[in-house]
Every structure is written in structure tokens, then in C-alpha cells.
């Protein structure tokens, strides 16, 4: 797996080993970032359920200002940190070791992200809980975008504060973009 475009284009990323690990394919990442376009530039990014960090690292490579990566598995954290170093983004990255839902439970520092990637494991997915906590904790900036990767056969239920702007399907995988209700926002 490699970074598709930007300053770290072509850099090879290590993929965590283990059951349930399914990094976002390069072709899907390329389609996603092409659709996001200039939204990524200077964005403050949250890569939740980070795994290899491919989504956050791709955003940094394409001009994002900063990325916070949240991952709870120790083995995945080691891979994530190596990938950040390999791409040269250590100064632009913060790694949080812990559960995404616990991280999103409280926002005492008032963190606000322009772009949030949610790519939880399929199956007993915490996606709906994560979306509810993002909305309740005011983690998303007024014009911000959430990109949620999920099984194409299951559209997640949304809290009333969020709405779908688009869902694209790639085989068994779907990418849904979401925004705050009433936010002035172009379709991503």
C-alpha cells in the first residue's frame, strides 16, 4: 500500500497484521480524495480507528495542516508510528493510544476538526456510537466533513445533528460523507 498523491506520493505504508484488518484500498482512497478536493488543504484531521494511518497520512500528503490519529491496538500503533515517520509527518501528527469511543466521550479542550475519517472494523461496528459522540461533543467544525467507511449493505443511523451529503459504493464497501445539519457546505 502506498500514498497516492501529494508530498509523500509513492511512500510505501506498512499494514497492520491481524483478523479484521482491511485497509482502504488505494483506488478507493484516490476516488475519495479526488472528491474532497481542496477541502483537505489546511484541514485539521481526525483519523479515528486509524490502523495504518493511510487516510490521515494521505490527507497530510495533500496539504492538511495537522492530523490526530486514534488507535487502541498496540501492534497497530507501532505500525502507525512507523508509517508517520516514513512519510516525514511526525511534526504534523499526534497519536492517541486508546479507544475511539472513549476519546470521543468528552471534549474538554474543545478540539474541532475540519475532516474526520471513521473507518471502524465491520461487524459489531461502533460507527453509529462514534457519529453520535462526534455530534454531541462538537468535534466537527461548522463546514467540516465526516467520511465514514462502512459495509455497503448497511447505511448507519445518524444523530439529528448530522446528514448525509453523499454515499458511494465500491463493491462491498461504501463511503458516506456527512455534515452538520444547516452547515453551509458543498457536496464532497
Describe what you observe in this structure.
This protein is an alpha/beta fold and 188 residues long. The chain has a single domain, classed as Vaccinia Virus protein VP39 (Rossmann fold, 3-Layer(aba) Sandwich), CATH 3.40.50. The protein is built from five helices and seven strands; from the N terminus they run αβαβαβαβαβββ. The protein has helices at 26-36, 54-61, 74-87, 100-104, 127-137; strands spanning 44-48, 66-71, 93-97, 113-118, 140-151, 162-170, 173-180. The protein has a seven-stranded mixed beta sheet, with helices on both faces. The chain is globular. The two termini are 24 Å apart.
Could you give me the name of the CATH homologous superfamily?
Vaccinia Virus protein VP39
SSE series: HEHEHEHEHEEE
How would you describe the shape? globular
Tally the beta strands: 7
Report the β-strand fraction as a percent range. Answer: 25-35%
Could you list the spans in which at least 5 consecutive residues all have pLDDT below 50? Answer: none
Question: Any idea of the CATH class?
Answer: Alpha Beta
Largest sheet: 7 strands, mixed
Please state the second-level CATH architecture.
3-Layer(aba) Sandwich
Q: Give the tally of structural domains.
A: 1
- State the distance separating the first and last CA atoms: 24 Å
Helical fraction: 25-40%
Q: Per CATH, what is the topology?
A: Rossmann fold
Mean residue pLDDT: 90
Tally of DSSP helical segments: 5
Structural class label:
alpha/beta
Radius of gyration: 15 Å
Amino acid at each position: 500500500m502506498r500514498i497516492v498523491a501529494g508530498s509523500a506520493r509513492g511512500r510505501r505504508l506498512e499494514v497492520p497484521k491481524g483478523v479484521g484488518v482491511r485497509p482502504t484500498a488505494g483506488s478507493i482512497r484516490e476516488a475519495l480524495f479526488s472528491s474532497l478536493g481542496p477541502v483537505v488543504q489546511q484541514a485539521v484531521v481526525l483519523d479515528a480507528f486509524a490502523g495504518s494511518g493511510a487516510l490521515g497520512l494521505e490527507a497530510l500528503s495533500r496539504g492538511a495542516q495537522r492530523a490526530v490519529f486514534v488507535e487502541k491496538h498496540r501492534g497497530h500503533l507501532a505500525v502507525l508510528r512507523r508509517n508517520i515517520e516514513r512519510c516525514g509527518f511526525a511534526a504534523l501528527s499526534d497519536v492517541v493510544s486508546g479507544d475511539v469511543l472513549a476519546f470521543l466521550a468528552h471534549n474538554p479542550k474543545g478540539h474541532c476538526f475540519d475532516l474526520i475519517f471513521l473507518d471502524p472494523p465491520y461487524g459489531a461496528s461502533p460507527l453509529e456510537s462514534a457519529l453520535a459522540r462526534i455530534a454531541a461533543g462538537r468535534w466537527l467544525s461548522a463546514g467540516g466533513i465526516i467520511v465514514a467507511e462502512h459495509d455497503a449493505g448497511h447505511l448507519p443511523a445518524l444523530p439529528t445533528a448530522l446528514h448525509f451529503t453523499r454515499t458511494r459504493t465500491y463493491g462491498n464497501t461504501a463511503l458516506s460523507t456527512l455534515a452538520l445539519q444547516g452547515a453551509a457546505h458543498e457536496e464532497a
